[in-house]
């Protein structure tokens, strides 16, 4: 079921009430553009097809935030924007569509999953928060007109989830010249069975300038911070016909002596990642005294460090390795080393740097007694 769900993010507003040079969906909230939070939530829930509707002229900006998404230009009213997003989705024929306002960045994968599950016995489903304030009707000058009962009143949030074909039929019946405040209104007018499930405070909508501080506090558990770690390693040359550096085997007049495969590049990088996590060093995790690590491929060490980052809810942002030796010449193998490192860490290639230097024939690396390496890792982890 989940694979057949599509997301439709309406980021069509220009945020006139908020101020600032960019529309609110592109402004920063807890270190990330507002729109990016919703895109990440859909990705985390395994929803692969996502349409983002933006004001005309902002398509490229949206594509940069959501490389895998279908980006379309919105219309004059929200209803027009959703209609354009639904048209873009129609060729994909998803079973379900979740329509979400980018101005609610507090979306979580678990909310998406709950909504999809609730569609099992409904045509439409949306989160709603009970009202705690009394609701009153007033005129333009603020004079009280009516006091409707609070009983049964709820405040509807997004995403609103629908059976796709049922919503398309509802939109057709609604007509193209009327607007609605949300999609539930259109579904309800067409007689769809809609259920409201408990909403969340963090789905509060960014409307006024002060809402930024409120949402940053509500979403504090998802705030990330950068950490940097540094690693150094060296191995002595000895008998052998090849060396392994950053996962790449290179023919050489010597081998490198070490307890494991002596990949100084990946050892330094493993220590850099562990350093960024303040999680000790490679020797703590893989004691040289333990025979099970003898001759071990260094991919085991590096993968372990990367898994620790993932376990902490973080991600590796960038790594930079410098190999220090006179020989072998590193440059012909540099791209293969970047590719091997990127593949193991599941990173885009532009997040991986491998470079080399000599020490002008000075010191132990200069005399080719051994080879050294330094590495820097930048990671992001949730603020505690
Ligand atoms: Mg080592």
Explain what you see.
The chain is elongated, with a radius of gyration of 27 Å. With 384 residues, the chain is of the alpha/beta class.
In short:
The chain has 384 residues and is of the alpha/beta class.
What general form does the structure show? Answer: elongated
Major beta-sheet overview: 8 strands, mixed
Q: Mean of residue pLDDT?
A: 92
As a whole number of angstroms, the C-alpha radius of gyration is 27 Å
Bound molecules: magnesium ion
Work out the number of β strands.
19
* Weakly predicted, low-confidence segments: none
Number of helices: 12
State the helical fraction.
25-40%
Q: Assign the structural class, choosing from mainly alpha, mainly beta, alpha/beta, alpha+beta, or little secondary structure.
A: alpha/beta
Distance between the termini: 34 Å
| Percent strand | 25-35%
Which features characterize this protein?
alpha/beta, 12 helices, elongated, binds magnesium ion
Topology:
Blueprint: E1 5-10, E2 28-29, E3 32-33, H1 34-44, E4 49-54, H2 59-65, E5 70-73, H3 78-89, E6 96-101, H4 109-118, E7 124-130, E8 137-138, E9 144-146, E10 154-156, E11 160-163, H5 164-174, H6 183-189, E12 194-198, H7 210-218, E13 224-238, E14 242-245, E15 248-251, E16 255-257, H8 264-276, H9 282-285, H10 298-311, E17 315-324, H11 334-345, E18 352-357, H12 363-366, E19 370-382
Parallel strand pairs: 1-4, 1-6, 4-5, 7-12, 17-18
Antiparallel strand pairs: 2-3, 6-11, 7-10, 7-11, 8-9, 13-16, 13-19, 14-15, 17-19
The protein binds magnesium ion.
């Amino acid at each position: 079921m989940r694979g057949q769900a599509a997301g439709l993010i309406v980021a069509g507003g220009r945020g006139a009430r908020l101020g600032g040079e960019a529309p609110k969906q592109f402004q920063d909230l807890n270190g990330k553009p507002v729109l990016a939070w919703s895109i990440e939530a859909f990705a985390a829930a395994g929803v692969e097809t996502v349409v983002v509707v933006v004001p005309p002229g902002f398509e490229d900006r949206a594509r940069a935030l959501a490389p895998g998404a279908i980006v379309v230009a919105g219309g004059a009213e929200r209803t027009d924007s959703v209609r354009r997003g639904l048209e873009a989705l129609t060729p994909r024929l998803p079973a379900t569509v979740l329509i979400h306002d980018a101005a609610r960045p507090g979306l979580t994968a678990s909310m998406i999953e709950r909504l999809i599950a609730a569609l099992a016995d409904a045509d439409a489903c949306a989160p709603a928060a009970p009202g705690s304030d009394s609701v009153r009707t007033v005129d333009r000058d603020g004079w009280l007109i009516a006091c409707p009962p609070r009983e049964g009143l709820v405040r509807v949030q997004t995403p609103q989830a629908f059976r796709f074909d049922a919503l398309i039929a509802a939109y057709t019946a609604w007509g193209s010249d009327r607007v609605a405040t949300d999609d539930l209104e259109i579904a309800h007018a067409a007689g769809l069975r809609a259920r409201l499930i408990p909403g969340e405070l963090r789905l509060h909508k960014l409307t006024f300038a002060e809402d930024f501080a409120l949402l940053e506090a509500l979403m504090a558990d998802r705030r990330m911070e950068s950490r940097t770690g540094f690693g150094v390693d060296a191995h002595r040359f000895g008998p052998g016909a090849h060396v392994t550096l950053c996962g790449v085997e290179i023919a050489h007049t010597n081998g490198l002596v070490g307890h494991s495969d002596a990949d100084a590049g990946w050892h330094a990088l493993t220590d850099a990642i562990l350093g960024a996590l303040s999680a000790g060093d490679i020797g703590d995790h893989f004691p040289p005294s333990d025979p099970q690590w003898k001759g071990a491929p260094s991919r085991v060490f590096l993968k372990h460090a990367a898994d620790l980052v993932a376990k902490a809810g973080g991600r590796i942002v960038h790594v930079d390795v410098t190999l220090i030796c006179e020989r072998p010449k590193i440059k012909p193998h540099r791209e293969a080393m970047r590719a091997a490192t990127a593949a193991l860490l599941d990173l885009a290639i532009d997040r991986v740097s491998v470079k080399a230097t000599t020490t002008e024939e000075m010191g132990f690396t200069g005399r080719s007694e051994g080879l050294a390496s330094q590495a820097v890792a930048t990671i992001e982890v949730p603020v505690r």
